[in-house]
User: What shape does this take?
Amino acid sequence: MNKLWAGRSEEETAALADRFNASIAFDSRMYKQDITGSMAHAAMLSARGILTQRDAGELIDGLQGILDELESGALAIDHSCEDIHMFVEQVLTERLGPLGKKLHTARSRNDQVALDLRMYLRSETDEITALTKTLAGVLCDKAEEYKAAIMPGYTHLQRAQPVTLGHQLMAYACMLLRDLERLADCRGRMNVSPIGCCALAGTTYDTDREMEAEALGFDGVCLNSIDGVSDRDFALELLSALSIEMMHLSRLSEELILWSSWEFQFIELPDAYTTGSSIMPQKKNPDMAELVRGKTGRVYGDLMALLTVLKGLPLAYNKDMQEDKEGVFDACDTVKLCLEVMAGMLPGMKAREDKMRRAAEEGFINATDLADYLVGKGLPFRDAYKVSGRLVAKCIREGKTLEALSLEEYKEASGLVGEDVYAAIDLDACVSRRQSLGGTSVPSVEKQLAAVREKLNAL
Ligand code: ARG
Assistant: This one.
C-alpha cells in the first residue's frame, strides 16, 4: 500500500511493523461513525467556502455509497489498510480520484479517531442503557411476584432478620437505577465534539466546529484542542460505570448461585438457562450466573488496562492511545451480553417459598422482634436484647424455635412476657410491621416498586 507519509520516508516500512501498527482488525467496527463524521466534515468545509459545494456534494455521495455498500456487504474491509480512517479515504480516492484527497483538509486522524470513538461509545452507551432498563423492569416484575414471599435476610451470611424475596430483588433494581444515572452522566461528558482540534494545535482554516458538532448530535465542542485529542476520560468513565454495573450483576449472580444450590434450595433457575453435567446426572448448574460473575473480571481488567495505558502519556496524541479501543469494546460487548442473559433468565426463575420460609423459621431471625416486644413492655433495649439472647441460647440447647417455647418458659426469662408474645414473633407479623420507608413489608416494597418504575419511565 502507498503510505500517506511516503513523502517523508525513503524506505518502505517492514511488513511486521505494518502489522504491529495496524488497528483495522478492531477499529473497523467504527466504520459508520467514521463515514458519517466525514460527511459532516465535508458539509462544514463547503459551508465555510473551503471546499466548493460541488466537491463537497460529490464527497458526501461517495461516502454514502461506501457506507451503503459496507452495510449491504457489497464492499469488504481491506485489512491491509492501517486503520478504518485510511481504508475509507483510500476507497474514496480510488472512486473519486484526487477529489477524495481533499476530504482530509482541516482535520487529522487524531481528532478523527477521537470523534469516531466518542460517537461509537455514545451509541453503545445508549444500547447498554436500554438493556439495563429492561433488566431493571424484569427485576421489578419478579419483585412484585414475590413481594410477600418471606425468606431470611442475611448479614455475614448468617440469618439475620426476615425479609421478602421481593424486597431483596428491589435492592438490585435500585442498584441498576444508579447504574443508569451513571451512564447518563457519563454520556453527557462524552457527548462533546473533538473534531476540528486537528493534529493538536487547531487549524489555520476558517472552520466551524460548532456546526460540525451539531450535525453529529453533540451537545458542544471540546474547548482546548490539545485536550480534545488527548482526552480519553469518556472511555474511562464508561469503563468505570460498566465495572460498577458488572459488580452489581456479579453480586446478583452470586446470590442466584447460592440460592439455587442444594444447601439453600430457595430458587430454581429455568432449564433453558442452566446446564447439566457430563458425568453427574443429578446436576443443574447455574453456568449463566457463574459466567456473569466471571466476566466481571474482564471488565475490571479493561478499566485497569486503559488507566495504565494513559497514566504516563505526555500530551497530545501518542500511538499508545490506539490501545484504548479493544478493551472498551470488549467491555461493552461483555456487559450487553450479560444484561441480555440476565433479562432472559430471570423471568423463568421460580422461588421455592416453602423452603425459604422454613429457613426463615429456623434461624431465630425473630429474635430482634422478641427484644422489640420486651421494649414495648417497658424493658430498656440492651436488657431486652440479653433476655432474647438467653432464650435463643436455650432454644439452641433444646433444639427448639422461639415460637415453640411455652409461656411459662418465657415468664421464667422475663415476667413482662404475656400471651401476646406469639403474635409479636410471628414471621408474617415481623415482616408486615416493618413499614418504615424502604422496609420489607409489602406496602413498603410496593412503594419502592412504584418509585423505581416511575424513575425508569422518566429516564
Ligand atoms: N489508528 C489510530 C488510533 O487508533 C488512529 C490515529 C492515528 N494517528 C496518528 N497520529 N498516528 O489511535
Summary: The chain has a mean pLDDT of 96. Residues 111 and 229 are 5 Å apart (CA to CA). DSSP finds 19 helices and six strands in the chain. The pocket of arginine is lined by residues 23, 27, 83, 109-110, 113, 317, 319, 321-322 (CB under 6 Å).
